[in-house]
Design goal:
About 50% of the residues lie in helices and about 10% in strands. It is α/β, with parallel strands linked by helices.
Length: about 700
């Protein structure tokens, strides 16, 4: 028997253990080994029942994603055919689920007649998150087991369920209490099925999965979710597959599922989402940072500043069970910050996301103070004060005096030079940038900014800490704005300039949201605050003094106190949450354009797309060439998780590859000529983009 399978007998029960660490991914070699072990059990007259289990920390986390898009995904035995064979077993087949049963792993369990789970297991079908749908019977067997509506929610959301929830749904037959031996319990369960002459495959609990649902259920479900699914293929196909489970035989449904899966798997969207999946894993591989490096212990954290950002940062650590001290200079500000944190936790309790006991436990982990002496023993201190270099440097001078040796000193700056902040300390090797995105307790992106002297140990420790607080960490070098905000500037520049040239804010934002972005750039400025953008520009007027005309409209809004949503007016007017076009903004743009000598004209949607997106892409490629970002995938992760770029487009650089690098370069060169002096100043192709096109490369990489 292959080393991929642990096969042994316990009396009349054959135990088939999946042994492909770390997560028993169901690649072709393991599928073949499982098929061989199953046939061996069927051929053995001594065997009356079979238990399939996973060795290590997972039953199975699903298919081997690296096979998708290649012949290996359908190589014999393909997973769907293998599971059909398991489902035909004449002997009771029990899945013993420990750890995780996800995707193809859960589909394997569904093909078994019975399922028994450890109390801490999680079960789910997350395929839609990578642009797919369950393709090995999940869309057909799950509805017949738990009903169409519950199955649809699991499949579309991709969210796993706990063992207790799985038991309540009827997804598993038994949950083994913590501390009990799952495999022993599964063996006894299988033996009991033999003793009572139970059928190998019991009748489906929901033979008619749609029973009790309104006749228009699927149409109404699609209409309800149309806005959230806008532009996405996988949820639509998954809905069709579940609908097929309700309208015909299992065999017909499996055939429909197979066709829909093939459509999804070959789509550009799934390719983009798989790119993101692998990019997230590659982002943690940092040159010069060994996996074996000793990490510094981080048991206690301090946050300087109890404002919106500081409070949100503190919540991340309390949520992960890490004590955190929140420091402010004034008691009123501290009280206000702590009250805001409690208010956010109260909101989570009202929405059923937290229990009152969990709220109390998390608040107990957050301690407020007005004294720097109270953070002297913190292992990590994160500064989250006003975005001005002199202020942050003063904070770090104090931290240098107060904090213990070996403490990691982090700045939450979003634009400033981390090296200049580190330089005011006697320990620049201990200083790092941790750029949280607002709201910090919700947004998963964390830009980790490695300073010139930041030690490998400090970098490795913060990356591990990001994992502990459930953040997607991307490492950036030091430059203005790092990865995300540096790319935001040319992207936003074109949006602002286009309004001066004749587009409306709604037209610019509409092109971007039609592409799939969560929010148009001008709406985003209204949300973040026109005043915030103004103050950032003020801090670097010297760098953009040669031509800041494109921000004249935003400067004008600032001068009138129109700061966006918080004042009810910005690029739009706001009535509650309703955004309304403001024609005074268009009139103001006309006046400013005349003063600046900018000719106004009709602007096509294609021009808006190309100028905004191509400048965003161009800056990302320049970041890669400069060594600020290590990989194009890192840049894509930042924009997907921090700026609302649609995941199913894979991020701006993956999107550029899909469009064709030649088209991007040609577009930049076109506007460089068409836009006169403005084009000559701003539409400068990144040298790396030129080299890639000249060399015939379709992928973005350093040359």
């Amino acid at each position: 028997m292959t080393t991929l399978i642990d096969y042994r007998l316990e009396g009349q029960v054959a135990l088939i253990g999946l042994a492909r660490p770390p997560v028993n991914a169901l690649g072709q070699p393991l599928r073949a080994a499982l098929a061989e072990a199953f046939e061996r059990a069927l051929a053995d007259a001594q065997v009356c029942a079979v238990v399939i289990h996973g060795q290590g920390r997972a039953f199975s986390a699903g298919a081997d994603i690296s096979e998708f898009g290649s012949p290996a995904a359908f190589a014999t035995p393909d997973l769907a055919s293998l599971l059909c064979r398991l489902a035909e077993s004449p002997k009771p087949l029990v899945a013993a689920i420990a750890g995780t049963a996800l995707g193809g792993g859960l589909e394997t369990a569904l093909a078994c007649g019975y399922r028994i789970s450890a109390a801490n297991a999680t079960l789910g079908l997350p395929e839609t998150r990578i642009g797919l749908l369950p393709g090995a019977g999940g869309t057909q067997r799950l509805p017949r087991l738990i009903g169409a509506q519950a199955a649809l929610e699991m499949i579309i959301s991709g969210e796993p369920v706990s063992a207790s929830k799985a038991l309540a749904l009827g997804l598993v037959d038994q949950v083994v209490a913590e501390g009990e031996d799952l495999l022993a319990a599964a063996t006894a369960f299988a033996a009991a099925r033999v003793a009572e002459s139970a059928p190998a495959q019991p009748a489906w609990r929901h033979a008619d999965p749609a029973q009790g649902l309104p006749s228009q259920f699927f149409d109404e479900y699609a209409a309800t979710h149309a806005r959230r699914w806008k532009g996405q293929l996988a949820p639509v196909l998954a809905l069709q597959a579940v609908q097929a489970a309700c309208s015909g035989s299992l065999q017909a449904g499996l055939a429909k599922e197979h066709a829909l899966f093939a459509q999804a798997e070959s789509s550009a969207q799934s390719t983009a989402l798989r790119h993101q999946f692998f990019a997230q894993r590659e982002a943690l591989k940092i040159p010069g940072v060994s996996k074996d490096i000793a990490l510094r212990p981080v048991q206690r954290v301090a946050v300087i500043g109890a404002g919106t950002m500081g409070g949100g940062i503190a919540m991340n650590f309390a949520n992960a069970g890490i004590p955190v001290t929140l420091l402010e200079l004034k008691g009123e500000a501290l009280d206000r910050g702590l009250a805001q944190i409690r208010k956010q936790y109260d909101s989570s309790v009202k929405r059923g996301k937290l229990t009152p006991q969990q709220l109390d436990a998390r608040m107990a982990l957050i301690t407020g103070t007005l004294e720097y002496a109270d953070i002297a023993q913190a292992d990590l201190v994160i500064e989250a004060v006003f975005e001005r270099l002199s202020i942050k440097q003063n904070v770090f001078r104090t931290l240098d005096e107060v904090c213990k040796a070996g403490a990691i000193l982090a700045t939450n700056t979003s634009t400033l030079d981390v090296d200049l902040i580190a330089a005011v300390t006697r320990r620049p090797q201990d200083v790092i940038g941790l750029h949280f995105f607002s709201p910090a307790n919700i947004m998963r992106l964390l830009e980790v900014v490695r300073g010139r002297e930041t030690s490998a140990q400090v970098l490795a420790t913060t990356l591990d800490l990001a994992r502990r607080i459930d953040k997607i960490a991307v490492v950036s070098g030091v430059c203005f704005g790092f990865i995300g905000n540096r790319m935001l500037e040319p992207y936003a520049r074109e949006a602002h300039r286009l309004v001066l040239e004749g587009a409306t804010p709604a037209q610019v934002d509409g092109v971007l949201t039609d592409l799939g972005l969560a929010m148009g750039v001008l709406s985003m400025y209204d949300l973040a605050g026109i005043d915030v953008g103004y103050l950032v520009r003020e801090s670097r007027r010297e760098a953009i003094a040669h031509d800041a005309s494109y921000f004249k409209l935003a400067d004008e809004l600032y001068s009138h106190g129109h700061y966006g949503q918080k004042t009810g007016r910005g690029f739009y007017r706001y009535e509650g949450r309703e955004r309304i076009e403001d024609y005074e903004v268009v009139a103001c743009a006309e006046v400013l354009a005349h003063e600046l000598g900018i000719a106004r004209r009709a602007i096509s949607n294609e021009e808006i797309h190309d100028r905004c997106l191509f400048m965003l892409i161009n800056e990302g490629i320049q970041l890669l060439d400069d060594g600020i970002a290590q990989r194009s995938g890192d840049i894509d992760l930042v924009w997907i998780n921090g700026y609302g770029f649609p995941a199913w487009l894979g991020g701006p650089l993956h999107y550029a590859e899909r469009l064709g690098l030649g088209r991007v370069l040609a577009g930049i060169e076109h506007y460089r000529e068409q836009l006169g002096g403005y084009g000559q100043m701003w539409f400068e192709p990144a040298p790396l983009l030129q080299r890639l096109v000249a060399a015939g490369h379709a992928r973005i990489q350093r040359l």
